[in-house]
Design a protein that fits this description.
By secondary structure, the chain is an all-alpha fold. It has helices spanning 2-5, 9-20, 23-34, 41-64, 73-76, 84-99, 106-120, 135-150, 152-171, 177-204, 210-220. The protein has one domain (2-220).
Length: 224
C-alpha cells in the first residue's frame, strides 16, 4: 500500500534517510535530560520511560515474542518468500537511486549486515534481530509524548515524525504493521505509568508540581 501511494524512488530515499536518522533525536533527548535542572519532572519522566521502553519492550517482550521482519522472511521461514516482490522492488529502487547520484537505500545494506552477523554467531554491537515490538516505533512515539508535554507545536512535529517512522518501518521491509502498533500502545502505556510514578514520588518528597503551586498561590492571593 505504501509503495502504491509513494511510487517514486525519491519517496523511498527520503523515508530511508528519515528512518535511519532516528538516532539523532534519541541521543539529543538523553543530552537534554543530562543538562536539565535536577528538579525537572519532564526529564525524570522521559529517562524513566526511556529505560522502561528498552527493558520491557526491547528485552522482555522481544524475548517472549521472538520475530524477524519481512526483510528476513525467506531466511527464517520455510516455503516461498511472501515478500520477494517487495525485496526486488526495493533493490531496483536503490539501484536507480545510486545510478542517478543519490545515496541509495541504506536499509538494504543494514539488513544484509544484520543477517551476516546473525549467521556468524558473533556478538556485534547493534546487530540484534528483533521485530516485535518495533523499538524504532516505540522511541518515535516516546519522542512525541515528551514533546507534547513540552508544547503543542513541537508535539505535532514529533508526532509527524512518528508517523514517518511507522510508514518507513513497513515500507522498507523492516517490520510488519502490527510491530509498530503494539510498540505504540505499549509506549503510551509506559508514558502514562511514568507520569503516575513521577507525580507520586515528587509528592512524597514534598515537591509540588508547578501548576499545583500556582493554583495554591492563586487561592491564597499570593504570588507563587
Amino acid at each position: 500500500m505504501t509503495h502504491a501511494l509513494l511510487r517514486s524512488p525519491l519517496w523511498s530515499q527520503a523515508i530511508d534517510l528519515a528512518y535511519h536518522a532516528w538516532f539523532a533525536p534519541m541521543t539529543l533527548g538523553m543530552v537534554l535530560c543530562a543538562f536539565a535542572p535536577r528538579d525537572s519532572a519532564l526529564a525524570t519522566r522521559y529517562m524513566l520511560a526511556f529505560v522502561l521502553v528498552w527493558i520491557v519492550e526491547g528485552s522482555l517482550t522481544a524475548y517472549w515474542l521472538p520475530a524477524a521482519g519481512p526483510c528476513f522472511y525467506d531466511a527464517v521461514q520455510p516455503g516461498p518468500d511472501r515478500f520477494a516482490a517487495l525485496h526486488d522492488h526495493l533493490r531496483a529502487q536503490s539501484d536507480w537511486l545510486r545510478a542517478t547520484g543519490f545515496p541509495g537505500l541504506s536499509a538494504l545494506d543494514y539488513q544484509r549486515e544484520l543477517f551476516r552477523a546473525f549467521t556468524t554467531r558473533h556478538l556485534t554491537f547493534g546487530a540484534g534481530i528483533s521485530a516485535m515490538p518495533s523499538l524504532h516505533n516505540a522511541m518515535a512515539v516516546l519522542f512525541a509524548c515528551a514533546a507534547f508535554h513540552h508544547g503543542r507545536r513541537i508535539g505535532y512535529l514529533f508526532a509527524a515524525y512518528a508517523v514517518v517512522i511507522a510508514v518507513g518501518s513497513v515500507h522498507l521491509g523492516w517490520h510488519y504493521a502490527m510491530d509498530g502498533i503494539v510498540a505504540a500502545a505499549m509506549t503510551m502505556a509506559i508514558w502514562k505509568l511514568t507520569g503516575v510514578i513521577v507525580h507520586a514520588t515528587r509528592t512524597a518528597a514534598g515537591v509540588a508540581p508547578a501548576r499545583e503551586a500556582q493554583g495554591v498561590a492563586a487561592r491564597m492571593g499570593t504570588n507563587p
